[in-house]
Amino acid sequence: MTGQPGERVSRGGPRLNCPHCGSGAKVRSSKQLSALYREVYLTCNNIYCGHVFVCGLEALRTLSPSAIPNPEINLPLAETVRKRELAMQLSLALEESEA
Predict the structure, then answer these.
(1) Residue 90 clears pLDDT 70, i.e. is over it
(2) pTM score, two decimals?
(3) What beta strand segments (E) does 1-99 contain?
(4) How far apart are CA 1 and CA 46, in angstroms?
(5) Where are the domains of the chain?
(6) I want to staple 18 with a disulfide (CB 3.0 to 4.6 A). Which of 24, 44, 46, 93 is the partner?
(7) CB-facing half-sphere around the CA of 92: CA atoms within 13 A
(8) pLDDT digits over 41-69, tens only?
């Protein structure tokens, strides 16, 4: 299974590496700061490095709309999804106008 370029994906999800030594890093804890953003606290697995750092995890865009959307969340559709939905709406409008 592969993710984005440079990203290693395992059974446990994306693997984050230490920005200093490149070794794997382990998630120690996290804190939800909003419905769309979480801070993740990590520790480098390399005992000679010992770097402890924080990453931000943010929901950026929708790839498949929710069946039970939260009206308080404004998460934009991915460009490809938006184009596909517009094409479907146009196709339906054309079918209705021909009938």
Answers:
(1) yes
(2) 0.68
(3) 8-10, 13-15, 25-32, 37-44, 52-58
(4) 25
(5) 1-59, 61-99
(6) 44
(7) 6
(8) 999 999 999 999 999 999 999 998 899 99
